[in-house]
Amino acid sequence: MKPEILVFASSPSAVVMEQLEREFVCHHVPKAGAAEKLAFIDSVAPRISAVWTVGAIGIDAATIARLPKLEIVVVGSVGYDKVDLEPLRARGIPVTNTPGVLTDDVADLTVLLLLSAARRLPAMDRFVRDGSWAAGKPLAPARNLRGKVAGIFGYGRIGQAIASRLQALGMELRYFQPRAIDGVTVRRAESLLALAQESDYLVLSAPATAATRNVVNAGVLEALGPQGTLVNIARGALVDEPALIAALNSGRLGAAALDVFADEPNVPAALRELDNVVLTPHIGSLTVETRHAMGQLTLDNLRAHFAGQPLLTEVK
């Protein structure tokens, strides 16, 4: 008999979904609609042995409690901050995610965002489109990156991949996270505040946890300064968004480039209206190749569990 799984978000990869549907009995929560969601879950709950979700959706304690036979939760993203780990661990239910396979694409987007902010790419695009160039309006020069300091908060796989790319552009590097990384040549700052003080560009690639919520506050933004730029490809929860908007509006912070936000997909109008901000809709891993790899790794973790084999990427 095929295991029955509760699917909160399908993989964009048709190949992955074909395999999933062939090997498991899938109950797709989005098809039930928001109003019928709980009734739908309750109707299949006694038979559910696995949950397939993503970081932006996760699974909460109330839903976990509805699933008496749950054996595993697989998360089709690297982030799992919306997965309620405590009740899962209390029941001995493992969680997996998809680290590694999205590292390069996220690092590439980070560089794109940083360059776009440095060279004011959205404003330059508008300058051509709205006729300002043809009208002979003045255009202020941007600044280059060579010799500038990029401070990276969170120096795991993604942080280090970002560092290698920025170093190739001639930037100097610093990093901070609570635990020092052995064997790296990049200097570690004493604190996040010190990192901001030393940096021209502050890049966020740390996980969202209780300890990192709103850690980029008014003081950190003030330390980054009027010539500084904040680049966030991690999670919106790391940034005190009202403080960021205030700093950008007042000129206490020079610019920001953001792929993630506090209440996605709801981006404050105050951010959308600013010329010194580059915005993208949480697309760090959004390539055909990487989304397939993420889906395949998620599926392979499911297969491993039901085959009694070690999980490939269990969250510890």
From TrEMBL:
It comes from the Bacteria. The keyword DNA-binding does not apply. CDD domains: HPPR. Keywords: NAD, NADP, Oxidoreductase. The keyword NAD applies. One of its GO terms (molecular function) is hydroxypyruvate reductase [NAD(P)H] activity. Residues 13-315 form the D-isomer specific 2-hydroxyacid dehydrogenase catalytic domain. One of its GO terms (cellular component) is cytosol. InterPro entries: D-isomer_2-hydroxyacid_DH, D-isomer_2_OHA_DH_cat_dom, D-isomer_DH_NAD-bd, NAD(P)-bd_dom_sf. Residues 112-284 form the D-isomer specific 2-hydroxyacid dehydrogenase NAD-binding domain. Belongs to the D-isomer specific 2-hydroxyacid dehydrogenase family. This is 2-hydroxyacid dehydrogenase. It comes from Duganella guangzhouensis.
